[in-house]
Each structure stands twice: as structure tokens, then as C-alpha cells.
Amino acid sequence: MAKAAKSTLQIATANRLRDGAVVFLTVDGAWSTSLAEARVARTAADADHLIATCDRDAATVVVGPTLIAVTEHDGVIEPVDLRERIRANGLTIDTIAADAVRYL
Amino acid sequence: MYTYDEHDRTFVAERVAQFRDQVKRRLLGELTEEQFKPLRLTNGLYLQLHAYMLRVAIPYGTLSSAQMRMLAHIARRYDRGYGHFTTRQNIQFNWIKLEDAADALDDLASVEMHALQTSGNCIRNTTADQWAGVAIDEIEDPRIWCEIIRQWSSLHPEFTFLPRKFKIAVTGSPNDRAAVRVHDIGLRLRRDEKGEVGFEVIVGGGLGRTPMIGKTIREFLPKRHLLSYLEAILRAYNLAGRRDNLYKARIKILVHEIGVEEMRRRVEAEWAAIRDGALDLPPQTIDAISRHFSPPAYEPQPAVDLAVERLRLESVSFARWLKTNVAPHREPGYAIVNLSLKPEGAPPGDASAAQMEAVADLALAHSHDEIRVSHEQNLVLPHVKRADLPTLWRKLAAIDLATPNLGLVSDIIACPGLDYCALANARSIPVAQRITRRFADLKRQHDIGELKIKISGCINACGHHHVGHIGILGVDKNGEEFYQITLGGDGTETTALGRIIGPAVSADDVVDAIETLVETYLQKRRPGERFVDTYRRVGDAPFKERLYAAA
Amino acid sequence: MPLLKDGRLVEDPWRIIDDASPLPAREPTIVSFARFQAERDQLLARGAPLGVRLRNSDAIDALAGAIDRLDLIALEFPKFSDGRAYSQARGLRERLGFAGELRATGDVLIDQALFMRRCGFDAWEIADAAKAPRFVEAFATFSVFYQPAGDGRAAVSALRRFASAGRA
User: Fold this and answer.
1) Cα–Cα 20 to 30 A to B347, which of A39, B63, B152, B255?
2) Considering CB atoms only, which of A93, A98, A103 is closest to B400?
3) What is the number of alpha carbons within 13 Å of residue A22 lying toward its C-beta?
4) Which of C82, C86, C156 sits opposite B158 (nearest CB)?
5) DSSP codes joined into one string, B389-446
6) pTM metric for this prediction
7) May I ask the CATH architecture of the domain B6-109?
8) Chain C residues within an 8 Å CB radius of B238
9) For B98-135, what is each residue's pLDDT tens digit?
10) How far apart are CA B148 and CA B292, in angstroms?
């Protein structure tokens, strides 16, 4: 059961069941890999709505859905927690390419 | 190395078919995530921050070139072109899709590989030392026993839902390169007074939240009793290990709480009932497995190769590489070649598909088709003619696997950390990268000498920081990454757990801190002393003083 | 609860009674371990089939003296991930020689059914009768077993010895 985070602005995030991709719940009730498309809950009622969708989709669409706190500056959403920022933005390091024999 | 027979092939095929069905049921919602999770973990599939991670088993760190090629294929076909070699001699792929996992496992099965029991509360990959079978100081090849244990522990019906994970390591040498004293069970091959070879059995070692050094439960166990004795230990643990608290569920806690005497009593009582039964290992069974580990057909080689000696004098780089990366071999005229997966600035332990394919070719050409993975996240070519060293060195340099830094300050062990891992509190890879850049100068590294830095991104200690000469533990302080430093850890037979030397330092300061510690050592050392030797002689004080002086 | 035995759903002839209830005269009855220890003589003297249900924290050795007089032992998986009953089952079958019905109760799921059978269980209380065929299928998931487990099936090592002896 998804739980609400303790903050004013929240979004719902999870990993997509079939491929593990980090996804965010959008205004259309779908799960998108784009943080920018995340539906922001600004009130407790909004948050409850997010939670309900999380619970509905936990069986076959996503794994581990949860609400996380975000900040919003000039319309750009950024998670508060470092772990969630890394989840949303990806690795903070480069990785070696398949055909490379030297790291960068 | 071990090759499958019809039974092994059938088993792996049945296992993949079972997993394929389990995935299908999960995707349909017939299995909840709670029901599915242990099933997927028993097949080595974790859900990490960004994706599923598949941990493929490399039993006792040994693989053939065909198997290495397949790992490259997995990286290309199902992942993002690279893999990460781990501190338990396995490999991890970080971007696997659940819907592809069964196909990847089928591909692995075609070369006698699998991901069985690389996760979950079951018996994990039994590790050995990476020089097994070729080290000069070895009493007997531990991999024979690792293979016997591997088979016995594969889908053991009684031990698939233990209180917690269970890790076994075997060393065949008095110089313990397998860290047996920090495993749930450590086995040390040794001789008794009559010269007969058997096992010292050690239980209850481990790192993580409550690091402990294992205790000897039996000084000498004859070989034929190995499996029955292990079964007795596992049974005692399965029945009495704590299940109320995840952080107190390992066998080390049970041994700590009831004492090694009581543990021994329970194990021996259980063992009395089952020894000499169906788990007895008669000589013919042991021989049948041993035959898979016979040495390859070495060719007579001169002990000294003139071309090598000439190049050693001509090339500083080659000389350095010989010094750190090439180890003596029990067969005259041969060498053990260590491939560093720690080039400057790179994530430690990672290799691209192209590098894996190149290593596969090199193993065929120069190492009797065999490769090893070490706990220190490096690779090994274990059967190389000394005469081939100059050629091999050039080929390795061309694929960036010849950094002459084995055991030196830039040969860092690091867990994936917060970049990848859902359990982590802080990142570890960027810290490793920055340290290697700060110490990039090879002359300086060689002057510093042996210095084992190990970094963990959280208290689960997958980076084995407790047994680093310098250990670095990432912690979260008010949402920021800080690093706790320990000194004096040792994963060898002189096992020791590192001591915290003071308050955690910030991410910005951690590399300077390491440099300060190294400088302190250089000032204090006596001739012949490694970092850890100086630390043992002078203690914490000089290091603490210098590190926290400016604060 | 639906009972799976001998490859199919069967009527359960056993009556499970709590510690306070009176003992039936003739019916096959399952009592708790605590009650068995408290009323052992009366229970054994009843002359009707007797079963005992253990918690997974109970020590099986307390049943040692009476093992031949028990017709059923029920073991529990409070959560499927709590694997203590596997060890209890093997101890009962292999060390104490229990030959009666060994019943799995609690969080009994398809994916653990074969492990349970290998450890000596021969009856399963399952939550959903409709899943019975899936359980039976699950028993056939593997044909290769690496370790002897007292279910009579030859482990791979034995098969290999047999094969090489045959060739010798």
C-alpha cells in the first residue's frame, strides 16, 4: 500500500514491472519515464488520489509505487531526496560503451 | 574446470523453464510481488534504483572463454553494453528487463551458466581464491570442494528459506585470499599431524551491520564428511536463526548469542545422526569431481625468459606491471597474470562487452581457455607462459587492462553504491574515481606500495570496507553524503576489522582525507612496512591527529 | 480447508480440536503439541488415530518416544518465507522414522510445493481448491535433484556412481 510522503508537493513514482524502468504517474493516470510529466499533488486529497492509482496498479503495472516529495522552481520538478534525484536523473557517472576498450 | 553432464544440463533447463513460468504468472498478476520476490531473488534478479539487476553466478570465479563471450553477448543483447564484476566473484548486469530475463537465462544455460541462488535467503555462490589450482602456496585446489558444495546446495529443498543469506568460502592455501573468516562458513584446507588433508571449519563470520570474525567450530574435518557436516550446520541455523529481525538473522548472530560451544554441541549432535549416511563422500565421488580440475597440459618452459628480462630493463611500465600484476605460478616457466579492472578514473570492476570479448580471445591464446574473477573485482589469466608475457602485456594495454596497480592505492574495491543500489546511503563510485585520479601517478603509487582501500555505500558492506586497510563507508547526514573512515582492516588470514578513526568527512573532503592518511603513513613508515604494518605499529593517534588537526 | 493428498483433492477425515474441547471418542483427531505433552497418556490410550500439530518453533525430539503411535503430524509455515518446517519435516521422517501423514499447513504456495514434498510432506492444506492441479504440476517441475533428501529419489551423485559402476 503506497504511503504519502511528509511534504507539501508530492509525485508518485515506481519501477515498471515488465522492464524495471523508473516511472512517474502522469495526469492521465499512466506511468511515464519522464519526470516532467509527473502529476504533482498539492493537497492531501490530491495525494490520496495518487495513492489510489498506485494501489490499483501495484498488481500488474508497477512495482513498489510510492509518493515522494518534490520541489518546484519555475515549473521544473525536482525530487527532494538524493536517492530519488538519482532515480529520476540517472547515474551520476558515465559508463563504458559496449565497443569501447577504454573508459572515456 | 567443471563441465556439465546431462544431469546438470537438464537441471538448468528445468530451472529456466520454471522461472519463465513464474515471470509469466507475475506479469499476469497471478503472483503478487511479495510472493514473486523470493522467487526472482533465487534467480539472481534484484530490483535496483533504475532497473532490474541480474547477478550471474561465476562459480568460484572460474570461467572459460566461451562463457566470457556469452557474458559479453548478454551485455550487448539485454543490457547497456557492460557488466560489473563483484566482490563475490560474480558478474552483475544493471539494466535487465524482467520480460527478457528468462531469455537471458536460456542463453546463459547454453554455456553452462546460470543465476541461481545469487540472491535470496539461501546458500549463495561458494567462493574460492582467484589463484586456486595455480598458486605456489596451495595445499589443494579449493575449487573441487566449491563444486561439490555448489551441487549439494543447488535448490536444496530444506535450505531455500533460511533466516537470511548464507555465504561459504574455501581457501586451499594458508595465505587466505578468500577471506574465509568473514563468511557464514569458512573452510580452510589443512593437514593434520599425519599429513592427511581435511578442513578447518569456521562459522559465524561476516561484515555488514555487525561485523564479526568467524570462530573455529571444528579444527579438523576429514574430507568425506564435508557435506554431512555442512548440512548439520545449516540445519541448526535454519531451526534456530532469528527470524524476528532482519538485521539479526545471520548465523553470526546465532553463534554470538548462544556461544560457539553451544553451537558446536548442536551441530555435532545433528551431525552424529547423519554422518556416514547418504551425504558421505566416498573417494570415487571426490575423484570424479577432482578430475575436472586437473591442470591443463602445460608445456615444458624455461623458468627464466630472456625476452622478459630484457623488456623489464628497457621498460619502466613493463617492469611495474611485472611487479604488481604478475604472480608466480606452481608450474615452472608459467605465470599468473592479473588484469586490472581499475584504470584511472573508471568505475572499479566494470568491463565493456568489447573488453570481455578481447579477454575471451586472450584466454584462448594465452591461458588454456581459462579466466578467473577475484574478490577484488579484477580478472585473472591463470595459465600464462612467461615467454608470452611481453606480447600479452601489449595486448592488455591496448584494451586498458594492464594498469600496473594490483594491491595499490588505485586498486579500489567499491560497491555500486547510490548510483545503482536501492539500499545505499551514499555514492561510492565517484569517490573511487576521484581517489584514482588524485593518485594517478604510478611512480607515486608504487612508492606507497600495498594499500587496500574498500568503499561501501551503506552498512551492508558489499564493498567489504571493514576489511580494507582503509575502509570508507558512505552515510547519510541530513540528506548529504558523508564518509566514515576506518583503518587497519584485513581480509587475509590475519583477519581484522577496521577501526573508525573519527567523525565522518564530507564528500568534498574525503579525497583530501585519504591523501592525508597516506602522507601520514609515508612520514612514519620504516623500511619494508606497508600502510597496514605502520598503522599496526603506531596506532590510530598519528592518523587521527593529522586528519582532524585542521578542523 | 481443501486437502491435497496422493495427487488430488481429498476429503479430510481429520478433526482439528483446540486445547479446551473434549476429545472425540473414535474420530481421527489432531491436537496441539501443548495438549499432546499435557495429556499424552490419555491421547495415546484412546485407540483412535491421533495427530499432533507443531508450531515451527517446537522441538521435534519431544515426539521421539511416541513417533510410532502417531498417525499424522501437521507442521506450519506461518509465512511461506519461514522455512523452519522443512527441517522439522526431514528430522521427523529421516531421523525419527515417522511414517504417517506429514501435513503442510499455513502459507502453502505452489512454488514451494516440491521443496515440501522432497522434505517428506505428503499432504497439503491449500487455500484455494481451484489451484490443486497447479500444485500437482509443480511436483513435476524438476527431474534432477542434487541432494539426497529422504524422499527416496536418487540424487545426481548416486546416479553418476551407478552409471560409472555399470560401465566398469
Assistant:
1) B63
2) A103
3) 20
4) C86
5) HHHHHHHHHHTT---S-TTSTT--EE--GGGT-TT-SS--HHHHHHHHHHT--HHHHH
6) 0.95
7) Alpha-Beta Complex (3.90)
8) 83-84, 86-87
9) 999 999 999 999 999 999 999 999 999 999 999 999 99
10) 12
CB B217 within 8 A of CB B237: no
What ipTM was predicted for this assembly? 0.96
Residue type, B57: A
Q: Which chains touch B (3 or more CB pairs under 8 A)?
A: A, C
Domain boundaries, chain C: 3-142
Q: Is the dihedral of CA C34, C39, C40, C46 positive or negative?
A: negative
DSSP state of B173: S
Chains that touch C (3 or more CB pairs under 8 A): B
Tell me the average pLDDT of chain B: 97
The answer, yes or no, to whether residue A14 has pLDDT greater than 50, is yes
Confidence of residue C168 (pLDDT cuts 50, 70, 90): very low
C-alpha cell at B291: 578430475
Superfamily of domain B413-549: Sulfite Reductase Hemoprotein, domain 1 (3.30.413.10)
Q: Is residue A67 part of a domain?
A: yes
Residue in the structure block whose three cell numbers are 491449500: C126
Buried b / exposed e across B408-439, counting CB within 10 Å, b at 16+?
bbbbbbbbbbbbbbbbbbbbbbbbbbebbebb
| Nearest residue in C to B281, CA atom | C157
B161 vs B165: CA distance, rounded Å = 9
| C-alpha atoms less than 13 angstroms from C-alpha of B472 in its C-beta half-sphere | 31
Q: Which fold has domain C3-142?
A: TIM Barrel (3.20.20)
- The candidate with the shortest Cα–Cα distance to B209, out of B465, B418, B19, B389, is B465
Q: Which amino acid is at C23?
A: L
Distances (CA, A) of B517 to B1, B439, B446: 43, 13, 16
Closest-CA residue to B411 (of B435, B392, B395, B389) = B435
Q: Which residues of B277-302 are buried (b: 16+ CB within 10 A; e: fewer)?
A: ebbebeeebbeebbeebeebeeeebe
Low-confidence ranges of chain B (pLDDT < 70): 550-551
Residues B319-368: tens digit of each pLDDT: 999 999 999 999 999 999 999 999 999 999 999 999 999 999 999 999 99
Domain B143-290 in this protein, CATH class: alpha beta
Instruction: Tell me the C-alpha to C-alpha distance, in Å, between residue B121 and each of B181, B206, B246, B472, C123.
Output: 20, 15, 11, 27, 25
Which cell numbers in the block locate residue C28?
A: 481421527
Domain boundaries, given as residue ranges, for chain B: 6-109, 143-290, 306-398, 413-549
Query: Can you tell me the distance from the alpha carbon of B287 to that of B217, in angstroms, rounded to the nearest whole number?
Result: 27
Contact B208, B526 (CB under 8 A): no
SS3 B355: helix
Task: Tell me, rounded to whole angstroms, the distance of Cα B459 from its chain centroid.
Answer: 18
Residue B76 corresponds to which cell in the numbers above?
550487448
A98 within domain boundaries: no
> Which chain B residues contact residue A22 at CB under 8 A?
49-51
Is B44 within 8 Å of B57 (Cβ atoms)? yes
CA distance C72 to chain B (A): 20
- Number of domain units in chain A: 1
Q: Which domain holds residue A16?
A: 10-89
| CA B209 – CA B232 distance, rounded (Å) | 26
Q: For residue range B194-249, what is the model confidence (pLDDT) as tens digits? A: 999 999 999 999 999 999 999 999 999 999 999 999 999 999 999 999 999 999 99
Residues of A at the B interface, defined by Cβ within 8 angstroms: 15, 17-22, 58-60, 63-64, 80-83, 86-87, 90-93, 95-104
Contact C143, C154 (CB under 8 A): no
B306-398: CATH topology: Sulfite Reductase Hemoprotein; domain 2 (3.90.480)
Q: Return d(Cα B226, Cα B211) in angstroms, integer.
A: 26
